[in-house]
Design goal:
Length: about 270
């Protein structure tokens, strides 16, 4: 397991917009996270479901994903997205691994408190999944851009099961600089596909990749019998505010959430 990120790895991150850093958890810890996310989907985990955004991969009776709204939507492994996992003690302690603190310090400066914009499970259920179009991770609602996403495969991620693909070096250019949304128009996506060769991030279960938020990325559906579960944490300077003046859950530095605090609240 890796302890630190090398200068060579940081160079790769800054040059290409992403870097694979290896595994930062044991097989037992991975197993526990896999079981926990399945329990959350099945409605059997001791978490506050009213606090969690949960989206089904397909809305019953429709061929499209369900609404992105708070609360459990039924006992099934066919969820596409679950957010607010910083409120689960097991996911929080994974997110607070010292190596991720080192990552945030490199990006935002030593001793800056860090918040997470989202601590998100992204799933391509077996033989299902929703195609995700090319985009940069930017949100019009924030007063500044988040710059780093820590992405962990919870299952082996392959081309066949819909691993993330990226366009190396694309983090150097904002596609829609003025309005702040990261999604490309179909014309922009077509143009990019015509001139760039994507890299498929095939990952082992437990492997971590750092993604610059401006890196163009997308993913396809799952053509296999195994799910493609992943945990994606977007970290930002804790001073970042939404347009309503709200701040976000702190994970490093002053005021950071703690596992003990969550457990005392019954999390
Ligand atoms: O897991 C995926 O397929 C895409 C995830 C993603 O877009 C992200 O983590 O920002």
């Amino acid at each position: 397991m890796i302890q630190h990120i090398t200068e060579e790895q940081w160079k790769h991150f800054y040059d290409e917009g992403y870097v694979r850093i290896g595994k930062v958890m044991t097989d037992d810890e991975l197993d526990a996270l896999q079981r926990k996310i399945d329990d959350i989907m099945l409605g059997t985990a001791p978490v506050d479901y009213d606090r969690m955004l949960m989206q089904l991969d397909r809305e019953p009776g429709k061929n499209s994903p369900g609404p992105q709204s708070k609360g459990h939507k039924g006992a099934t492994l066919l969820y596409r997205k679950i957010q607010d996992l910083e409120f689960d003690p097991l996911f929080l302690s994974y997110m607070q691994n010292p190596i991720f603190r080192e990552v945030c310090a490199k990006i935002y400066g030593e001793d800056r408190p860090i918040a997470c914009f989202r601590a998100m499970f992204m799933n391509k259920p077996a033989r299902e999944g929703t195609r995700l179009v090319w985009h940069q991770d930017r949100w019009t609602d924030l007063d500044r851009d988040a710059l780093i996403t820590i992405y962990t495969a919870l299952d082996p991620a392959t081309v066949e099961n819909g691993c993330v693909k990226v366009i190396p070096g694309s983090h150097r250019t904002l596609v829609n600089p003025t309005h702040g949304s990261g999604f490309l128009t179909p014309e922009q996506a077509e143009e990019i596909a015509a001139r760039s060769a994507p890299v498929y991030l095939e990952l082992e279960a437990g492997e971590v990749v750092l993604l610059h938020n401006w890196l163009l990325h997308s993913s396809d559906v799952n053509h296999t019998d195994i799910p493609r579960r992943a945990f994606s944490v977007c970290c930002m300077d804790a001073a970042t505010k939404s347009s309503h003046g709200n701040t976000f859950s702190r994970i490093f530095g002053e005021g950071a959430l703690s596992r003990d605090q969550l457990q005392q609240c019954g999390g």
